[in-house]
Amino acid sequence: MYKILIVEDDQVIANALKRHFEKWELEARTIEDFQHILEVFVDYEPQLVLLDISLPFFNGYHWCNEIRKISKVPIVFISSSSDNMNIVMAMNMGGDDFIAKPFDLSVMVAKIQALLRRTYSFQGQVNHLEHRGAILNLNDASMIYQDQKVELSKNEFKMLQILLENKGKVVSRDVIMKRLWDSDFFVDDNTLTVNIARLRKKLDEMGLNEFIVTKKGIGYLIGD
């Protein structure tokens, strides 16, 4: 079942869309917290986003840009501001379609179903890991947090990927070392300590304090 994220602050419209999508066996979720839309997007992992332009705090163009940093998921703008300038702006910001309000619900569903079919005949799923609002992009080995994007080294990326894939569990030093240096050559145990320290410093500078927790004599885990 395809999942649709509805980013619309008019709850009457949002709920009407949600109910209509569900009639057509499309799962849908509406937004309640308009300050943390990206975190909801990462948590829900929708196959399509319906995005209004006029929203509380930040407009739809802002959120389209934020989503495009981590995903190629189809984004359909829905707005009563349907003049040519807004339509062109929406497409240039990374939108895939623009549907003007007021719209017919049946036409909306038909357009959404067609876009989903075209997109997911070949395309895979969203490719990222998230924790505490920080997003590890598996496509380009970068970390995004509060409008900051930091490039990670090969080892930094691998360490974060291992830990985030095992969120809530302690990952032993041996397991991490084997993933980082999978060879027959001897690797000094202190090398991992140095790599972890460098990664922690980079995370601290982003404001992600105690993101990686040490379990003495065992290994590491992602902090709550």
Automatic annotation (TrEMBL):
Give the UniProt keywords, A-Z. Answer: DNA-binding, Phosphoprotein, Transcription, Transcription regulation
The feature table lists the DNA-binding region at 126-224
Q: What does this protein do?
A: May play the central regulatory role in sporulation. It may be an element of the effector pathway responsible for the activation of sporulation genes in response to nutritional stress. Spo0A may act in concert with spo0H (a sigma factor) to control the expression of some genes that are critical to the sporulation process.
Q: Which InterPro entries match?
A: CheY-like_superfamily, OmpR/PhoB-type_DNA-bd, Sig_transdc_resp-reg_receiver, WalR-like, WH-like_DNA-bd_sf
Q: Which residues carry this modification: 4-aspartylphosphate?
A: D52
> Domain OmpR/PhoB-type: where?
126-224
Q: What is this protein called?
A: Stage 0 sporulation protein A homolog
Give the GO terms filed under biological process for this record: regulation of DNA-templated transcription
Example GO molecular function: transcription cis-regulatory region binding
Q: Tell me one Pfam family matched here.
A: Trans_reg_C
Gene Ontology CC: cytosol; protein-DNA complex
Say yes or no: keyword DNA-binding present.
yes
Domain named Response regulatory is located at 3-116
- Keyword Magnesium present in the record's keywords: the answer is no
Q: Which domain of life is it from?
A: Bacteria
